[in-house]
Specification:
The protein is of the alpha/beta class. It has helices at 15-26, 41-46, 48-68, 82-92, 109-112, 115-123, and strands at 2-7, 30-37, 72-78, 97-102, 127-131.
Length: 136
């Protein structure tokens, strides 16, 4: 069974990410671990605890939806820095692939950070980039 690490924040509940996970599962047995950085943007700056609560809510709702789709998935909060979140997860377990879900280019802070390339470099894993939409 392939073990796939997924990192997403504002796109974790997006239909685009859901479809990407379903397509990947259709290719063969897959177990997904979804990591959501614990805070972002103004939520982190204004109140770090609020950012954590927001991220926990996103993880909970996404996992419910993915499990309803029949996916083998677990979730966790990660470091607020997405590169650190990926590195921490990859150091804690062994994965075969990485899926990075971002907002579209014109609004994505993660793409300005070049997260897909940095995550591939940090983990040595093949990366699939999914462009998702945000509920925010």
């Amino acid at each position: 069974m392939a073990k796939i690490l997924v990192v997403a924040n504002r796109t974790v509940e997006s239909p685009e990410l859901e479809e990407a996970l379903k397509q990947r599962a259709a290719e063969g047995d897959a177990e997904f671990t979804v990591v959501v950085p614990s805070a972002h943007g103004f939520a982190k700056a204004a109140n770090p605890d609020a950012g954590i609560a927001e991220a926990e809510g996103h993880v909970h709702h996404a996992l419910e939806k993915f499990r309803q789709d029949g996916l083998d998935v677990r979730g966790q909060l990660g470091d607020p820095d997405p590169v650190a979140a990926v590195q921490d997860a990859a150091n804690a377990d062994s994965y075969d692939e990485l899926i990075v879900s971002t907002l579209p280019t014109h609004v994505s802070k993660w793409l300005r950070l070049d997260l897909p390339r940095k995550a591939a470099h940090a983990t040595g894993l093949p990366v699939t980039h999914v462009v998702g939409s945000s509920k925010d």
